[in-house]
């Protein structure tokens, strides 16, 4: 069975608002970096077939060597599918000389209305073997918590 890294969270916002936060440059820079990192988008083309390049910088790289340099992960993300208020499918390629981080990872963000909010389910396939599954799922959970804080009233 192939590996699938997952995370999910119910967010107190409409599916349309969550979708908008998945395809807005400023929003992604604000909420996508997991705890202990900050992010900057260098290139932006928000359409199917387009994508972006994100530079993630470790706030404290001690014990967390980056994939691209000592303190950074650079990832080229493509928008494979954009279905407003329902789904965003991204392909991600890490810039790294280490073959353990080679390959294309697919991240699927599935949105479903639940009550007054949105159930957001993230699944990652094709995850490079150099990325520890538990650490990756912790990062997904952290990003989802940041997304909730970004969108929810008082967040």
Task: Tell me what the structure shows.
- It is a single chain.
- With 155 residues, the protein is α+β, with helices and mostly antiparallel strands.
- It has a domain of 103 residues: Alpha-D-Glucose-1,6-Bisphosphate, Chain A, domain 4 (2-Layer Sandwich), CATH 3.30.530.20.
- 22% of the residues lie in helices and 41% in strands.
- Strands 1-7-6-5-4-3-2 form a 7-stranded antiparallel β-sheet, covered by helices on one side.
- The radius of gyration is 15 Å and the shape is globular.
- The mean pLDDT is 94.
- InterPro entries: ASHA1/2-like_C (IPR013538), START-like_dom_sf (IPR023393).
Notable characteristics:
155 residues; alpha+beta; Alpha-D-Glucose-1,6-Bisphosphate, Chain A, domain 4; seven-stranded antiparallel sheet; 3 helices; 22% helix; globular
Topology of helices and strands:
Elements: E1 4-11, H1 15-22, H2 25-31, E2 37-45, E3 51-58, E4 72-83, E5 87-94, E6 105-114, E7 117-125, H3 133-151
Antiparallel strand pairs: 1-7, 2-3, 3-4, 4-5, 5-6, 6-7
Organism: Micromonospora tulbaghiae
Domain Activator of Hsp90 ATPase homologue 1/2-like C-terminal: 13-152
Protein name: SRPBCC family protein
Q: Summary?
A:
With about 160 residues, the protein is α+β, with helices and mostly antiparallel strands. It is built from three helices and seven strands. Pfam families: AHSA1.
């Amino acid at each position: 069975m192939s590996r699938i890294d997952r995370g999910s969270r119910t967010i107190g916002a409409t599916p349309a608002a969550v979708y908008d936060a998945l395809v807005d440059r400023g929003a992604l820079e604000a909420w996508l970096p997991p705890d202990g990192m900050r992010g900057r988008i260098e290139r932006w083309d928000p359409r199917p077939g387009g994508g972006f390049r994100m530079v993630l910088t470790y706030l404290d790289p001690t014990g967390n060597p980056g994939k691209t340099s000592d303190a950074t992960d650079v990832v080229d993300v493509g928008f494979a599918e954009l279905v407003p208020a329902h789904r965003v499918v991204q392909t991600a390629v890490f810039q790294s000389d280490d073959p353990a981080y080679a390959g294309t990872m697919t991240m699927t963000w599935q949105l479903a209305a639940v009550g007054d909010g949105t159930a957001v389910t993230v699944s990652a396939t094709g995850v490079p073997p150099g990325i520890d599954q538990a650490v990756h799922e912790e990062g997904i959970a952290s990003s989802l918590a940041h997304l909730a804080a970004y969108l929810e009233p008082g967040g």
